[in-house]
Each structure stands twice: as structure tokens, then as C-alpha cells.
Amino acid sequence: MYDKNSFKIKETPVILGLESSCDETAAAVIRGRKLLSSKIISSATEQAKYGGVVPEIASRAHTEAVDEVVKAAVEEAGITLNEIDAVAVTYGAGLLGALLVGLSFAKSLAYTLGVPLIVVNHIRGHLAASYLADDKLKPPYVTLLASGGHTAILHTVTETEFKLLGGTCDDAAGEAFDKVARVLGLEYPGGVNVERLAKSGENNVPLPKCIVRDSQTIKFSYSGLKTAVINYCHTAEQRGENIVKEDVANSFQHAAVDPLVEKTVECALNLGVNTVTAGGGVIANGYLRERLSSACKKAGLKLVLPEKKYCTDNAAMIAAEGLIQYLAGNFADLSINARAQIPLN
């Protein structure tokens, strides 16, 4: 009988993390806040043939890779399966079929080992990635979240509680980067290719900032920014004018990123916290990292920035959030199901 309420909590547990929400099959092992291993098997090259992630292909790739990636992570960590104290896994949000592969594997492993199963909200995993960059990090602090599905500024009050300070009222930053990449004829994954193109361009294309002027709340909007890029390119094409793609990419990047940095620092100063963190795939963007670092330094704020490889999808961040939930005693029953969508909070 698997009883989620019968497990004793250790001070420094060994936790195996699993991630399979999209096109990365990943596993990682941590001991306390110390990262012992992190392995990823990606189907991105295969997905690129179709210009984006095909759910059926992703699910099949996870099924083929999950056992291999777990074995590799355990071996690199220098432990045996019997030393694992808990299994943490992404159960949402993401592609349902892909999530089910990782969740099913995690359930079986947790049951076999007789250890707790911890289910992790993928977005909270991105937020927890900062603990990998600074194992002494403690709340309160302000976090900039920017990913393919979410864009928000959060006030992390405790390790398990945060307050939403502001966010997007339509599309997310990562989705906008991918859309602009397609408009410019760039290959998947779009975000990294927009950044690469922008490096040789100028910020000279008139585009609206993604900030919504509202005195009551902080709101971002990427729908209008995407439309502005589409209209600019379409109008130039109709007129027979040459489009300097590098300039479009550079100008878009400025319009998409600058308001995020500005408002994040502003929130930290207004709340009187001295630390800023960031998480999500868009945080791997080099221009954003430079702007955020510069702005925090100027404001006298400490910035805890995860390495780029821990901003994009990985299992180390899932293990990090798993540790938080483990210490809080938030264990899951084996009957829990995957969820394609989960509210941010």
C-alpha cells in the first residue's frame, strides 16, 4: 500500500527530478540544494523539420528516452536508485501526452522504491531554478518570469508563497519571440535565432513597447507588438521595399525586453527587497540578461540569475522545486493525473 502520508522527511534528501512537458526529456539528481547531475535528451532537431513541436513525435521521443536519461543522471550523480529519497516530476503544464510519459515513469519508480512522489508545476520549476544559482538564496525577493506560456513579475514571500505583481494580458514573451521568428523566416526554435539575428541589427524600426499604461496595475501586451512586426514586414513587402531582418529583430527585442527589466527593478525598489531573480526560457536571452544585470547593478540590487541551461526546460529546476515541496510535506497520491494547463498560482 502506497501511503503518501507515511513518509518521514529528511533534512538533506536526495531527489530525482523528471521533466517531459515539451520536447526535452530530462532527469537530474540533487542532494539538498547541491546539484549532482543533469541530463537532457532533446527531440528539437526532429521537431525543427516541422517548424515547431509535434505532440505525437514528442510523446514518442519521451517514451524512447526516459529510461536512458534517468539511468544517465543517476550514474553521473554517483548514487544508486536505492539512495533516492523522493521522485519529483512535472505534471503540468505542457503537452498532455508528453507529460503522461514522465509522470507514469515517476509513479512507477516512486512506488518501486517506496519513496514519496512529488508533482511539480512546470512554471514553479522555472522559479526555483534560482536556487541552483545561489544555494543561500532566501525570500523575500522579486522574480521576473518570462517563458513561452507566461510573462509575469512576482513577489516571492516565502519558498512556497508568491504574489503576482503584474503580467501579460494576452500573449507571453516567449510566444512572441517564436511568432516573430516565423515572420522573419527563421528556423525553430525561434527565440535563440531572433537573438542571433538581432546582434547584427540596429534598433531603428518603430515598434510599440509591450507595456500597457495603467496606473493601477502592471500589464504587458505582446499581441500588439507581434501585429506591429507583421504589419511592418507586410507593408514593406507590398511596397517592394527591402526589409533589413536584422534591424527588425533588434528593434523587436528592445521593445519586448526593456519594459520587463524596467518594471522588475521598479517593483523590487518599491517593495524594499534587495534581491531580484529570473526564470523561464526567455531569460536565456543574452540581451535580457545584460539589461537586467546592468539595471540591478545601477539600482543597488543583488541579481540571482540561473545559468542559461537552467532557464530552458530541464529537470534540475524540477528537482529544486521538488525539494521545496518535499520539505513542506507536499506528497502526491499515485492516482494523480497530468494537466495540460495549470494556473500560475
Outline:
The protein has 345 residues and is an alpha/beta fold. It is 42% helix and 20% strand. The relative contact order is 0.19.
Write the layout of secondary structure elements.
Blueprint: E1 14-19, E2 24-31, E3 34-42, H1 44-48, H2 55-77, E4 86-92, H3 96-113, E5 117-121, H4 122-128, H5 130-133, E6 141-146, E7 151-158, E8 161-168, H6 173-183, H7 190-198, E9 211-212, E10 218-220, H8 223-238, H9 245-271, E11 275-279, H10 286-299, E12 302-304, H11 316-327
Parallel strand pairs: 1-4, 4-5, 6-11, 8-10, 11-12
Antiparallel strand pairs: 1-2, 2-3, 6-7, 7-8, 9-10
Question: Main traits of this protein?
Answer:
345 residues; alpha/beta; 7-stranded mixed β-sheet; 5-stranded mixed β-sheet; 11 helices; 20% strand; globular
What does this structure look like?
The chain has 345 residues and is α/β, with parallel strands linked by helices. Helices cover 42% and strands 20% of the residues. It has helices at 44-48, 55-77, 96-113, 122-128, 130-133, 173-183, 190-198, 223-238, 245-271, 286-299, 316-327, and strands at residues 14-19, 24-31, 34-42, 86-92, 117-121, 141-146, 151-158, 161-168, 211-212, 218-220, 275-279, 302-304. Helix 6 packs across helix 7 (190-198) and helix 6 (173-183) runs parallel beside helix 8 (223-238). The longest helix has 27 residues, at 245-271. The radius of gyration is 21 Å and the shape is globular. The model has no long low-confidence stretch (mean pLDDT 94).
